[in-house]
Amino acid sequence: MSALLPLEEALERLLAQAAAEPIVETECIPAGAAEGWVLATALVAGLDLPPWPNSAMDGYALRLADWTGEPLAVSQQIFAGQAPVALQPGSCARIFTGAPLPEGADTVEMQENVEVLADGRVRFCEELRLGQNVRPRGQEVTSGEVLLEAGSRLGPVELGLVASLGVAQVEVRRRPRVALLSTGDELVEPGQPLGAGQIYNSNRALLAAWLTRLGCEVLDAGILPDDLAQTRARLAALGAADLILSTGGVSVGEADFLGQVLREEGELTLWKLALKPGKPLTCGHYRGTPLIGLPGNPAATLVTAGLLVRPYLLRRLGATRLEPLRFSVPAGFVWSKAGGRREFLRGRLEQGRAVLHPNQSSGVLRSAAWADGLVEVREGSTLAEGDAVTFIPLSELF
Ligand code: AMP
Ligand code: MG
């Protein structure tokens, strides 16, 4: 048996290639349209957040030193959005959540803990602690501090932070253009009639949606027939892409048209990964454009795209976090036969345990729709119920 390439090693090689061919051009775009893009320059705070000390509660603001235990008169009312005057010595201020603390005040008591007397003064019923219920100026960030590093992917939280600084435009790495190529004489696009021996192209739809979520621009290069002349012509007609992503046609023994064209007009290496599903993978260049060829079976496409192409593309964009989150969970199944390849099984968490879909065929996509994630079983290992396995939520791969 020829040695299979361990997953970690394949990832390392792909990441090294990605680092050698970064997509460095940047764009300034409205923050509202930047979800999923990678920040090209650090987001530096141009102001303190919050910009002034403010109340975390609806209540009363006072200077703690003014409090002797006697009730205090209320000298002003401060709503959020108002600018208060300095606190009159010996008094307190009615204050609402998010309103600026008046100069001189240092402590807020929540309204539930005060008694409003008939003469309008308030009695503080509980012990007070200096600074309680006050959000100090700069609690979240101070001006000049880096709030998001370059290489951060902009998700909802990051966009919230961008907005909190009043920033309306962000500088991001431009979107990668990925040419999607499906190979196979058997493939037909949805909407067309199905002939004898044909199946519908499901990988294109899967990968197009997945790439769009990753922040890529998808160039649909269509279905490539298993034919040398057409393969040559189709590749030559591809517009400028940052990556050609193909599926199918990489199994050993298959008529190797894509491989032949790459050998003529670029280079390629064929990998046999210690990975299941997803053993054969093609890596190369066509006229200088990087190409990754994924196996054609839909579940293998999913696994290799999520575990290898995703970090590869993110690295090309300079993203700092590449790897999906993984969790260690007890196995809710038995794995009695140690395999020679790392398996990623379609599974779910049930009562905190990883359970497997009964159909793990690499040709079956339906079990991935049932699944919440991939259950990783390392090569050479067997498992008893309750043994720790790694679970990667599918959402982490998308
Ligand atoms: P291949 O890697 O070309 O040998 O294909 C492996 C298996 O995946 C075969 O059963 C193909 O019919 C199937 N397959 C290849 N490409 C696709 C695709 N785009 N959509 C659905 N199935 C595919
Ligand atoms: Mg094929």
From TrEMBL:
Q: Is the Transferase keyword given for this protein?
A: yes
Pathway per its UniProt entry is: Cofactor biosynthesis; molybdopterin biosynthesis
One biological process term in Gene Ontology: Mo-molybdopterin cofactor biosynthetic process
Instruction: List the EC numbers from the record.
Output: 2.10.1.1
* Top class in the EC scheme: transferase
- State its role: Catalyzes the insertion of molybdate into adenylated molybdopterin with the concomitant release of AMP.
Report the protein name in the record. Answer: Molybdopterin molybdenumtransferase
